[in-house]
Task: inverse folding
């Protein structure tokens, strides 16, 4: 019990420290795929260091919501990550239904950043906010269909139980359903973190941006907080995906921690490859793709019910 | 080996599901081709479960199936598509998001229906019957919900794939002979439809099948006279 707590704590602290590495890995892989050198994988650390030394400038039309939003979204994410079972060990804060709390804490952060985007009065930010809300509403349906599948499969209702509640037997028992859910959650990961088929984090054209358009008015430490929160969000979603994919009963203790970190880096590489080989979808097409997530997970649920 | 069957069947189901939500005709044709190839592979996988290895007849059937459904039919369809100069189904009767939801309902219904059947006799996999029914239903749905004649042919092919899958999955006796007969029918159908679609598009500059309703024996003007 004691060691598993320390492993979990190690996972938590390493996540906080290493999460800016993940976008770095993604960008490095993308650069390598197109044959260029690319920025160092530590680039986001340099950016954060630079931003935190700067001062902030706020527009005269904005109110107190603008500086509040980055703080709240990061704080909500920090609370939410306490429920994640890092490195295959149950979180000490796990309780019934914390999975709902986790996703709605992220939702709280998103609500505040959307309000802040509207607060700036910039038309681009408003457009970004509108798109962000439209897509995240559709993603939410998908997320809860996936959660429903996991609840049906494991019988638990806490995030730790959901992600650690099945072992290798789940894969031999219903490999097909697990594959479907893995694909579905990967789509959720891409869309929630504004990755390429849905939004381009590198674009500099306001008309096509979603998340980036919302944060156009930020600078200095606030922008640093937003970048850090985005990296942390990517890391958390990647963690959940890794924990869904890998059975919990094989990797125990320190081995679990190492496998977990290696898997996170692999997810970064996979994301980089995915972003290099896919083009951005048209906006009209995005809701259609997002609706395929609940479809896939509902098919998975049907399969699970057939085999039970 | 059992898992391999289920994964093949699942890919089969996913292909038919994706058919309802993709607008590009080339993409749809490829999906149907993949379905045909999966269908050809299934008997090979199945025969490993029962006997020591696939018999000559099964091997022959597989090869014929893969060649016709995976190569010849798609080639004919793609040629027709180029001749008729259509690339995508632009205005289906039912929108794509709604289609995929309806397809999901159909899949659910098929699973429910095949639960009601009492399973006596050998069955390849518990998934075989529901996947076959879903594919049949989705094929019928495509036929009634799309305008372009080419997509309707694709719907018919999907429908036929479903029936063939049912035959394979239920391990029907003399399935091979029936299968060959159906294959011949389908081949002829696609061939004829290809010519028909080409003629329609040359006459009317479109292949919207629902507008064929306006064709009458005698036009209204002459009837009034």
Result:
């Amino acid at each position: 019990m004691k060691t598993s707590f320390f492993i979990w704590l190690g996972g938590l602290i390493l996540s906080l420290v290493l999460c800016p590495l993940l976008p770095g890995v993604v960008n490095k892989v993308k650069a390598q795929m197109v044959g260029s050198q690319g920025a160092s994988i530590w680039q986001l650390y340099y950016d954060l260091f630079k931003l935190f030394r700067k001062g902030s400038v706020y527009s005269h039309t904005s109110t107190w919501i603008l500086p509040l939003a980055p703080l709240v979204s990061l704080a909500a994410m920090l609370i939410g990550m306490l429920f994640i079972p890092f490195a295959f060990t149950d979180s000490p804060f796990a309780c019934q239904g914390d999975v709902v709390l986790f996703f709605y804490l992220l939702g709280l952060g998103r609500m505040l950043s959307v309000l802040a985007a509207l607060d700036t009065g910039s038309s681009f930010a408003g457009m970004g906010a509108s798109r962000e809300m439209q897509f995240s509403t559709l993603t939410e349906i998908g997320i809860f269909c996936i959660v429903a599948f996991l609840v049906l499969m494991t019988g638990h209702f806490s995030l730790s139980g959901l992600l650690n509640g099945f072992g290798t037997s789940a894969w031999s028992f219903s490999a097909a359903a697990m594959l479907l859910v893995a694909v579905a959650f990967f789509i959720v990961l891409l869309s929630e973190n504004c990755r390429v088929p849905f939004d381009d984090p590198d674009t500099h054209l306001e008309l096509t941006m979603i998340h980036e358009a919302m944060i156009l008015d930020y600078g200095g430490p606030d922008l640093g907080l937003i970048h850090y929160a985005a990296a942390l969000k990517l890391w958390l979603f990647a963690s959940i995906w890794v924990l869904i994919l890998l059975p919990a009963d094989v990797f125990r203790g320190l081995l679990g921690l190492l496998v977990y970190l290696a898997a996170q880096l692999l997810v970064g590489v996979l994301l980089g490859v995915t972003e290099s080989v896919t083009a951005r979808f048209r906006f009209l097409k995005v809701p259609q793709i997002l609706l395929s997530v609940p479809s896939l997970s509902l098919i998975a649920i049907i399969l699970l019910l057939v085999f039970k | 080996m059992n898992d391999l069957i289920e994964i093949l069947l699942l890919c089969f189901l996913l292909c038919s599901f994706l058919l309802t939500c993709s607008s590009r005709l080339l993409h749809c044709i490829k999906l149907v081709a993949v379905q045909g190839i999966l269908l050809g592979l299934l008997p090979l996988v199945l025969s490993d479960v029962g006997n020591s290895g696939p018999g000559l007849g099964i091997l022959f059937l597989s090869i014929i199936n893969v060649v016709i459904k995976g190569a010849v039919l798609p080639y004919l369809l793609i040629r027709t598509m180029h001749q008729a100069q259509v690339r995508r189904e632009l205005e289906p009767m039912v929108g794509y998001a709604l289609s995929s939801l309806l397809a999901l309902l159909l899949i659910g219904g098929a699973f429910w229906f095949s639960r009601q059947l009492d399973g006596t006799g050998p069955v390849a996999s518990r998934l075989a019957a529901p996947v076959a029914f879903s594919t049949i239903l989705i094929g019928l749905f495509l036929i009634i919900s799309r305008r372009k004649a080419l997509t309707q042919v694709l719907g018919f092919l999907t429908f036929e794939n479903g029936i063939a899958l049912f035959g394979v999955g239920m391990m029907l006796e003399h399935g091979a002979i029936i299968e060959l007969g159906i294959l011949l029918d389908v081949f002829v159908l696609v061939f004829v439809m290809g010519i028909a679609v080409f003629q329609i598009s040359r006459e009317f500059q479109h292949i919207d099948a629902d507008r064929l309703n306006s064709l009458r024996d005698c036009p209204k003007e002459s009837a009034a006279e």
Notes: Chain B touches chain A at residues 3, 6-7, 9-10, 13, 17, 21, 96-97, 100-101, 103-104, 107-108, 111, 115, 126-127, 130 (CB under 8 Å). The mean pLDDT of chain B is 77. Chain B has one domain: 2-224.
